[in-house]
């Protein structure tokens, strides 16, 4: 049975991200290998992966292609701020800036960036993002799916929903509207 997974912010070949994000790797080579192993331990060949940006930095086009070829799954890109031509030229199944899709009956809004308000928030949509490297806390309907927030591996929608079930914070748009309703 195939599954759909989500992840972001690999930053393959980016040595500075190790210290910037407190990643537990001795060097960039160890990080690259660990991230590829973590990906492939979760993702099978026919699985779908929504990659929400920042695939590689400081990597040549050839290195990017080699990394990409080693990763299992049918890979869709939601572009991040560090996804230059060397990443955009890879054979992604699709490329987007923002995606609205449904997985297992759940409406999703996928973007590299966290949004304070997003389509379908009033109808229970979930917003998945990267970019923040686990520094932005989730709300009941949005969270960072980047590797720094999820033990360096892609995650399933069930895992995301389990995490969000323990969050009390509502999305800002809902909090603001409730406040305005209370005032008038």
UniProtKB/TrEMBL annotation:
Coiled coil: none annotated. Pfam families: Metallophos. Residues 3-85 form the Calcineurin-like phosphoesterase domain. SUPFAM superfamilies: Metallo-dependent phosphatases. InterPro entries: Calcineurin-like_PHP, Metallo-depent_PP-like. One of its GO terms (molecular function) is hydrolase activity. This is Calcineurin-like phosphoesterase family protein. It comes from Methylorubrum rhodinum.
